[in-house]
Amino acid sequence: MLNNREEALALLRKYNQEPFHILHALTVEGTMRWYAQKLGYGGQADFWGMAGLLHDIDFEQWPDQHCQKAPGLLKEAGASEELIHAVVSHGYGLCSSVEPEHEMEKVLFAADELTGLIGAAAKMRPSKSVMDMEVSSLKKKFKDKKFAAGCSRDVIRQGAERLGWDLDTLFERTIQAMRSCEASVNEAMAAL
């Protein structure tokens, strides 16, 4: 049974060796934990974090079967149906037909792509950090379709709509969420 973060991290590392993929997983985990607290689901923060940590479990080894291989890998590790549904729903409309239903799944759907865009924008800053990033500078990067072209603007827009938020709210909250975990993610990456 997949019971705790250590087991989830070991499972992630079993299928992911690329530092970029591990960095993304840790960032989305921290972002999801922040959102759990912010949106009144503090008691479920571990579950939200685990969904974030494992959302791309199959992407590195099976990019063409993303969200298709994940259920088997997670089931084999003893993951709950709820966790499997959450992981698979983040790829809705791209590589999965499982729709995000719960608020946590909608946050994961919206924040996954956006953390990639914010992370790329942070690398371009003199500070290399989200700590001094403003929504206005992120909006400029969002409008520049050539910047971080792999981050789907449509998915980010759909994610905001699913949550009933405008883009500025999603941007502001996700920047705050990434600020909350930047130091611990950098520490974890340095230890790899």
Question: What does the model show?
Answer:
The protein is mainly alpha-helical and 192 residues long. It has one domain. The protein has 9 helices and no strands. The chain has helices at residues 5-15, 19-38, 45-54, 70-76, 81-89, 103-124, 135-143, 153-163, 167-191. Helix 6 packs across helix 8.
Terminal Cα separation, in Å? 25 Å
How many discrete structural domains? 1
CA-atom Rg in angstroms: 15 Å
Number of β-strand runs:
0
* Approximate shape: globular
Low-confidence regions: none
Strand content: under 5%
Strand count, sense and closure of the main sheet? none
Q: Structural class, from helix and strand content?
A: mainly alpha
Order of helices and strands: HHHHHHHHH
Summarize the amount of helix as a percent range: 55-70%
Number of helices: 9
Mean pLDDT: 96
Topology:
Elements: H1 5-15, H2 19-38, H3 45-54, H4 70-76, H5 81-89, H6 103-124, H7 135-143, H8 153-163, H9 167-191
Question: What attributes does this structure have?
Answer:
192 residues, mainly alpha, 9 helices
Summary?
With 192 residues, this protein is mainly α. It is built from nine helices and no strands.
